[in-house]
Amino acid sequence: MNVAIPADDDNFLRRECPTCEQQFKLKLGPANAEGAGEPSAETYFCPLCGVPAGAYQWWTKEQLDYAQARAMPDILAQLSNESGLEITQTGDVPEAMVEPNDMDIVQSPCHPEEPVKVPSEHRQSIHCLVCGSSFTV
C-alpha cells in the first residue's frame, strides 16, 4: 500500500533526524547530471547534527501519522473482506498533505549533487548528507 508524501515546489522532501529531531529537506531525484548515475545511499548524515542513520529512518512524526491515517480505510476494508467481519473506521481520513516552500537550499562543496534545505534560522555549520563533512555557508 502506497501513501503519497508530497514534496515542495522545488522537489524537496521534508525529513526529520532520528537523533536531534530537527527537520530539513532533501532533494528527490538527481540534482544534476553527476547525481543521475549515483546509486541511492543506504545511510545519510543529518545536515544539522551530523549523525548518520539508515535511509528509511528519516520520516517526520507528521508524515508517519498521516500515512497511517490515510492507509487505515484500505487496511480495514481488506481485513473486513478477508475475515467476513464488518469493520468500520472511527476517525476521519485526513486531507492530502501540503508541503510548504520553506527553508533555504544549500550545497555541500564535497557532494553538490545532493543539495538539502535547512531552516532559514540555522546559523551553525552544516553537514554533507552523503559523507557527513562539515561546512559553512
Produce the secondary structure layout.
Elements: E1 12-16, E2 23-27, H1 33-36, E3 43-45, E4 52-54, H2 61-83, E5 104-106, E6 116-118, E7 126-127, E8 134-135
Antiparallel strand pairs: 1-2, 2-6, 3-4, 5-6, 7-8
| Helical run tally | 2
Mean pLDDT: 87
Tell me the fraction of residues in β-strands, as a range: 15-25%
- Return the domain count: 1
Q: What would the keywords be for this entry?
A:
about 140 residues, alpha+beta, about 20% helix, elongated
How would you describe the overall organization of this protein?
With 137 residues, this protein is an alpha+beta fold. The chain has one domain (12-135). Helices cover 20% and strands 19% of the residues. The protein contains 2 helices and 8 strands; from the N terminus they run E-E-H-E-E-H-E-E-E-E. It has helices at 33-36, 61-83, and strands at 12-16, 23-27, 43-45, 52-54, 104-106, 116-118, 126-127, 134-135. The protein has a 4-stranded antiparallel sheet with strand order 1-2-6-5, with no helix packed on it. Strand 3 and strand 4 form a beta hairpin. The longest helix has 23 residues, at 61-83. 18% of the residues are buried. The mean pLDDT is 87.
